[in-house]
Amino acid sequence: MPFSAQNRQGTISGIIFVAIFAAAATMISQISFIKSLGISPLVIGIVMGIFYANTLHNHIPSAWGSGITFSGKKILRFAIVFYGFRITFQQIMEVGMSGFMVSLIMLSTTFLLGTYLGIKFFKMDRDTSMLTASGASVCGAAAVLATEPVLKAEGHKTAVAVSMVVLFGTISMFLYPVLYASIIEPATGFLHMTPEQFGIYVGGTIHEVAQVVAVPASVAGAPEVMANSAVIVKMTRVIMIAPMLIILGLYLSMQAKKAGGEAGGLTLTIPWFAVYFIGMAGFNSLDLVPHNIVSVINEIDTFLLTMAMTALGMGTIFAKFKGLGLAPLYTAGSMFVWLVVGGFIVTKVVTATF
């Protein structure tokens, strides 16, 4: 037990050690250049954690390991629950059925495509395939973090998935404004998108929340409706992480039953933190907590997520990556093509229908 009499001191020291790294990651993320790239402290945290794991990890007491593990497991679940304070059901209603359908279609198709290609075509293991797919289909690094406990995946697999999110999410952030300025905005016919449609397209297909915010801000003269639509559709995708994880838990339970035979019985895996996440979003929708306090909660939550990501990075040794090769890159690249091209078509068809 991490807080038993013999482990308590080491656990607390390990948590403080992770918190120091997370604080440094948070400060680095506020540097203007880093901020302009939409790189969150979560990403910086895992990079710092990986650097530590492959250089200095032998120079701290082994007793601190329980605190690092606690940060990557328990603090992670707590932070995901309070991520619900970023969302209200009223926001989701604002974009109507078209925004909801784009979010639902892109999330489900991207996750299924990434998982299938990763396992069947590029011969990756199940966990790395699903983690990479969750990051692309839902909300980037936070989705990878939320999926990891359901799969009970190893930390280095989470790091692989996050690195793919960073790569293709960053490409998206630069690509979409260019597409809008050179192709979508001035064109007529099918290629043309209204600012609201483009916002839905951005929110329904780009990986990270920060990157979704950055894209409309990078479009010269972009009307407010573009940014609002992008953020709200993105938040709709974020809240869908909860039902996705519940369905995934049920699927894994059925797979375990098949593998163990009828005698093995069915062990139902429900990620309760995902259920609590929905409950927290519902509570936030009641607008009972003052907005300034919600902002403080979200800042603390971001810090806790950064701690969790840093802790996962601290368990990532490069030697564990052997054998994966370029498969994660191919898988994430295939999903990226689907998000850009398929997402455009889906957005045009759905917004014309609803």
Explain this structure to me?
The chain is mainly α and about 350 residues long. The protein has one domain. The protein contains 16 helices and no strands. Helix 8 (about 140-150) packs parallel to helix 13 (about 240-260) and helix 11 packs antiparallel against helix 12. The radius of gyration is 20 Å and the shape is globular.
Name the quaternary structure.
single chain
**Overall spatial form:** globular
Low-confidence stretches: 262-266
Helical content, roughly?
A: over 70%
Roughly what is the average pLDDT, rounded to an integer? Answer: 82
In the residues, how many domains can be counted? 1
Intertermini distance = 53 Å
The tally of beta strands, per DSSP, is 0
**What structural class should be given to the helix and strand makeup?**
mainly alpha
**Helix segment count?**
16
Radius of gyration: 20 Å
Largest sheet: none
Measured by DSSP, the beta-strand proportion falls in under 5%
Order of helices and strands: HHHHHHHHHHHHHHHH
